[in-house]
Amino acid sequence: MTMMKMKKNVLWLLLTVLAVASLTSCGSDGDGSVVIPPSNPPKFESVSGKYEISDNTSPYESVELGASGDYVVTKRGYTSSQASAKAKGMLSLEREASLTRAATDGGIIYGTYTQIDGNTFNLEGFGVIELITNGGGTVTGISITPSGGNEMTFSASKAQEMGSDELTEALCRTWKVIGGVEKGYDHYDGEYEYPFDANDPDALKEIMFTKSGTFLNLYNDNTIEALFWKWEDQGKMLLRGSWDNIWYNDDDGNFTIQFSAGNRLTIREYYVDNESGEWYDNTIELEEKNPASADDDEVVIPTGESPLEKVFSGNLVDIVDDHGRDQFIYQNGFLTQVKYVGDSYEQSYVINFEYLYLNSSKPATEPDVRYTKTREDGTTSYVYDIWLDEAGFAKDIKSTHYEKDGTTVSFDFESSCRYDSDGHLVYMNEGREEREYNLTWTGGDITSIETVGRHTTNYSYNESLNENNLMFFYDMFDMDIEELKYLYWAGLMGVAPKHTLIHSEEIGYEEGAYEYQWEANRILSKRSYEDDDAWEEIVNFTFVE
């Protein structure tokens, strides 16, 4: 195989390699000893494990719970299409087993899970499992209730795991790819260099390592690769990867890694084909997915003051028309429902809010708030799960969007928000392309927003107070956050600017300057430097009487 063929899908190949590499080295100080960076155990470390089903009547061979909250179900009889061939280094492997999160194809089912109680877990898109133990706590069986199916019970046992040394503990979790570069030489292209492109559909998105020797590579196009890993020489920080759990006596598939602050990994693979002279040198950067903080289990969400009381000092909105006419329903200080009340030719919908944190027995791993959009035919459009910070504002968000049947996952993504001590939103990563924002506040007002990788816009205000705490992220602040806007109206996404916005101007782009005019029930805008430009309504609203 030539190097050109090996790198046809350069980015995903690069990331596969580096994923494996991340297993190899934690870093070293001057005397060669292993240095493990400070890191809290993953959120699901205590319940993680691979449970192998010995009953041959089971349609499933194993269920594995990852330490970061991801699961893998393997169907009986599944083998990788690559298992019959020896790999000439991880970059030469081609991926198989396509699937979407919480969907199945090629014999593997993959998604995220939550813990219902001690031994019971909800596997998103698959169903509910319960681990059955004997009096000593050893797993002897597993109960599986697939979504829409009947309960099945089989004999099962926990698979043997690697030792619980610091290096293995630090590695075995799910990682997100954040950067990298591939360099090399082949006879077809000569020398080449390809930087990592997070938006490329072939680029690797996540890597999951487990103590049972499983590692999975999830790509942007929702393709997955299921492989095996082991330590080649832990003292030298060497790790190997394999498709079939067969290990050859050569140097192919060895990788090195180094941990760094912030729960990050830098991974490298260097390979030379001595016969052809072709080579590649790949580096990738990863960060931990869903990192646990030292006080994760100690987050206390305030319940004395409702979210609405905390954010809204004036009137609550009744109807808002900003790219969709919505009516807001409240009860006992909470936003409980949003109804579409727009044109009849648009499909109607209802969004229902659940404040799960009000249940004192809620497991810490489950979301604090959930809102679900239901179409007029009763099918689910999307589900947003929200974890709150100590102030009661949305911190981490997982969203799942469904096809018209309401069960098939169309796409999903994760969002994150951060706030200052005054409740101002200062950072948001919506989770999709070009939707990462840094917000600067001065005197209670947003004075600048950087859309990372694109542009920065400055904002100015008059002395009039924003008495009803109105906040329109897209129409006034150019933040394309779509359905996340409902979190603000629920009192869960920080506070609004103190004054009324009158001017915005994108730095270096005159056409990106706008004036704003506030009226009793609407806001108008026009371009700043167009004398004949007419004022146009951008949003309108009414208030609860």
Summarize the structure.
Helix content is 7%, strand content 45%.
Secondary structure elements and their pairing?
Blueprint (H helix, E strand, L loop, with lengths): L2 H4 L3 H12 L27 E5 L6 E6 L4 E6 L27 E3 L2 E8 L4 E4 L3 E7 L5 E8 L5 E7 L7 H6 L2 E13 L3 E6 L8 E6 L4 E6 L4 E10 L4 E5 L11 E7 L3 E9 L6 E10 L18 H5 L5 E5 L3 E7 L2 E7 L8 E7 L13 E7 L4 E9 L5 E9 L6 E11 L5 E5 L6 E7 L2 E7 L3 E11 L7 H5 L7 H5 L9 E8 L6 E6 L3 E6 L8 E8 L2
Antiparallel strand pairs: 1-2, 1-9, 2-3, 3-5, 4-5, 5-6, 6-7, 7-8, 8-9, 10-11, 10-12, 10-18, 12-13, 13-14, 14-15, 15-16, 16-17, 17-18, 19-20, 19-34, 20-21, 21-22, 22-23, 23-24, 24-25, 25-26, 26-27, 27-28, 28-29, 29-30, 30-31, 31-32, 32-33, 33-34
What do the pLDDT scores average to?
A: 82
| Poorly predicted tracts of residues | 1-35, 83-105
Q: What strand line-up does the widest sheet have?
A: 19-20-21-22-23-24-25-26-27-28-29-30-31-32-33-34
Q: Proportion of β residues?
A: over 45%
- Computed CA radius of gyration, to the nearest angstrom: 26 Å
Record field, number of beta strands: 34
Helix content: under 10%
Count of domains: 2
Separation of the first and last Cα atoms: 73 Å
Q: What can be said about the biggest beta sheet?
A: 16 strands, antiparallel, barrel
- Provide the structure class: mainly beta
Shape: globular
Number of helices: 6
